């Protein structure tokens, strides 16, 4: 597993392309931070298939929310190795 021990944050990872990216990182052994903007149920469903995951609400248009999420990740894992900005601002 190429990414074992790595922490990966993928924005917009509860569905679509972001979900596929998150699944690929998980298959390679990464702990995956699954983010959502509106549908927590879908994000939790996505994360339940991963060995190690953390589900968090993230609005990439809010600097304050981004800072809060990074602090949560640091508290849980102590680091963040990989960031994939899959989500966009509408």
Can you walk through the features of this model?
It is a single chain. The chain is of the alpha/beta class and 90 residues long. The protein has 3 helices and 4 strands. The protein has helices at residues 16-27, 40-47, 63-77, and strands at residues 7-10, 31-36, 53-57, 82-84. The chain has a 4-stranded parallel sheet, with helices on both faces. The longest helix is centred in the last third of the chain and has 15 residues, at 63-77. It starts with 6 loop residues before the first strand and ends in a 6-residue tail after the last strand. The mean pLDDT is 94.
If helices are DSSP runs of H or I spanning 4 or more residues, what is the number of helices? 3
SSE string, helix = H, strand = E? EHEHEHE
Number of strands: 4
User: Beta-sheet strand percentage?
Assistant: 15-25%
Mean pLDDT: 94
The 3D shape can be described as globular
- The percent of residues in helical segments reads 25-40%
Strand order of the largest sheet: 3-2-1-4
Report, as a whole number of angstroms, the end-to-end distance. Answer: 36 Å
Q: What structural class do the secondary elements suggest?
A: alpha/beta
| Low-confidence runs | none
Largest sheet: 4 strands, parallel
CA radius of gyration is 12 Å
